[in-house]
């Protein structure tokens, strides 16, 4: 076996929210790894915990969130051993994130130039004019036409696609090792989607940057990702190389997802093909959270622990009766 | 209904403050209804030999400069203070919701006119406008009621308008229209009940303001005349004695006023929780 | 960009015109809706029919309503609000000499309220369910329930009678001091201009209690709004972005969150000012403050209609002006304004 030195290891991560109406078990024993330069897709229905997981990696979880077990190891070092200050300095420098709905993700009453400057000032030794030059360079890097003029624009004066470019510029300003893109192209028109995705891909390739691409769009994931993580109700149910996953899905949920997506590019969000709802994460949950919806259900599927198998090298599935 | 009731119990248990406000509310109501019989002394009977006595067992709130029992006066005043504000709030509730619902339902010119009216009222500092209206209408208790109603009118009109507007296209309104109901019937029987919950919250939040407003007017000498017991005027009469240390004359009626306002404000917050748990601030 | 905001400001001014018109119409109606015949009133108890008719003619009350309104407008444009029957002076003059006292007090109260409410609301929002948060909630609940005149008297009892820390609640300056030369009419400023620190101190001491009374009243809505706005902004997408970019807590709080949260607070400020102008009347009575509020109360009791209506008009116009100022400030602060309109 080759010596492995993954960029990010998420190990048995469990996270819950303490709310007024009960404890929401949003993530349970989530595990996966990312290599340098690799692009990993995370797919799953709405509410499956994709964003919650990304926030946990970034260290920007909601105050109500409690990590109850597990580790997140980044560049060989456990993030939970870092101080708040250290984590703050890592964010935007080594770990970056971009979000859905870029227009609201930028400060509405600050020019995009200033917002970019804020981050550069924070993470680099550039000062004064250099900051501005670096910011302009980044704006051209993400192909924003006429950056000098856009520099003074407010987010509401730009289109969603332009704002997402600005977000990318902010995210890659310090050449991070890992970029998490949480549904970066949802809500953008198809041409813009392709442009933005290519920008992310190029930026990742240039820097040998690891990328987590969270998406509803299986087609997008198939096109851009080396590996795919399938999440359901806070569980990782299957992880495999993209080709493997599409060729031979092992988890009934994955199979449903792929089966329900005839021309791979249909959006998961519009899928009603999978019957049943996501379980209530506040209730007592069975070992397999998909059991209520599963066609292959058998009584022992409810027994803990749920087996987690490596069906072939690098293809993991959490199911008692994998396909 | 039982779901509402269970939710009510839940809110009460979760929020002792709301519970406290309910208790206070019933106490106020009791004092308003039975105050004159509960008061140990005649609130108007003076006893100059016993003037300006500090609180004691015989006179728990002390006596005023004419030897009248402050406790009895504070209790008796509850009815008048509540009556003024209840009357005012009822008037502005009825007028405001009628105007607001019409504005929201019909839109167009009706909406514009009513909007202009509320805007004009709101363009004044409200207490100042109240002073102006009382001076124009004449210095009587009824006019205090009308005035307080006028300055509270915009709040109801605005809430009712927003609610009616958002329900204009709602299914039940459409259904009522299709089954041949006239505008009047739709407004009264279909819109009316549906906008009640937010209006209730508004009423309760508004009561406190109405009480403050009416008491403020009588504090500056409008409406209620001495020797009628009323909290605002009692504070005004007691004010002269504060600087010489006879605090009980002004502080007790003032505290009663504060508790009443507090009660309605807390009640309003509680009701809002009850109706919409998400709107907690 | 520059001419853009000038244009917007111009448009705001135009939008204020119908409001001002509404105010003028209402005050006109109020002056004409008198229960009795003002002519009889002005003529005094000893007047006969003839002199009443004369006075009616001289007041223009024999004309039709539109004519009277026209005259009213003309008088207003000349700054003529009629004569006060209790002092015999033009109402305009009476108001003008007393306005600085009221304004100084109101602004001081507002300043205190803002200085306390905004940090309190921010602290409460950044530490939900902490002690500060509960304190904030308490202040907000109690603050809106306290009758201003009661707060004022309570403070007088504690700080003047019991503790003796405060001067007697009798106006802007105790009799041993002489008012500074009139420049702005604000004693705090005029005394500094005159270089008389003794008077400055005395005026300040005199003002602390009434201003605090107003501040306690205005605190509640401001703190509540600050807290709510701050909570909203702190959970917004762009603050999440700022956190994900590793910006420091200080930058996030002050540059990202605060600047956005202050916008709705600015709007609330207008409403608070409306309440303050009313509360000011009560506070002036409690502290024997020689402002336009006290003047209006005396006028009310004496049925001095012209004075009362002049007072109402002046207050309403002041309120419109303040709202205008807030709108303009908003236009300058928020780049998004004007796009949707
Ligand atoms: N602050 C919170 N408090 C309580 N529950 C939360 C909180 N944030 C998220 N959750 C819950 O955690 C679960 C996962 O949410 P998450 O936002 O990660 O889903 P997602 O996969 O990103 O969905 P989407 O595709 O819609 O973005 C949901 O059930 C959600 O209700
Ligand atoms: S464990 Fe059982 S119920 Fe769950 S997915 Fe597998 S087969 Fe279906
Ligand atoms: Mg999400």
Overview of the structural elements:
The complex is a heterotrimer of chains A (323), B (281) and C (341). Chain A has 323 residues and is α/β, with parallel strands linked by helices. Chain A is built from 10 helices and 12 strands. Chain A has a domain of 98 residues. Chain A has an 8-stranded mixed sheet with strand order 6-7-8-3-9-10-12-11, sandwiched between helices. Chain A has a 4-stranded antiparallel sheet with strand order 2-1-4-5, covered by helices on one side. In chain A, α3 crosses α4 and α4 packs across α6. Chain B is an all-alpha fold. In chain B, α7 crosses α8 and α8 runs antiparallel to α10. The two termini of chain C are 16 Å apart. Chains in contact: A-C, B-C. At the B-C interface, α4, α5, α8, α9 and α10 of B face α1, α6, α7, α9 and α11 of C. The structure holds adenosine-5'-triphosphate, iron/sulfur cluster (SF4) and magnesium ion. Iron/sulfur cluster (SF4) binds next to loops of chain A.
Question: Spans of chain B with pLDDT under 50 lasting ≥5 residues?
Answer: none
- Number of helix segments of chain B? 10
In terms of quaternary structure, the protein is heterotrimer
How large is the count of helical segments of chain A?
10
Determine Rg of chain B (CA atoms, Å): 22 Å
- Which of globular, elongated, flat, extended, rod-shaped describes the shape of chain A? globular
H/E element order of chain B: HHHHHHHHHH
Q: Output the structural class of chain A.
A: alpha/beta
Major beta-sheet overview of chain A: 8 strands, mixed
Radius of gyration of chain A: 20 Å
Total E-strand runs of chain B: 0
Low-confidence stretches of chain A: none
The major sheet of chain B is characterized as: none
| Estimated helix fraction of chain A | 25-40%
Report the average pLDDT across residues of chain B: 84
Across the major sheet of chain A, the strand order is 6-7-8-3-9-10-12-11
Fraction in beta strands of chain A: 15-25%
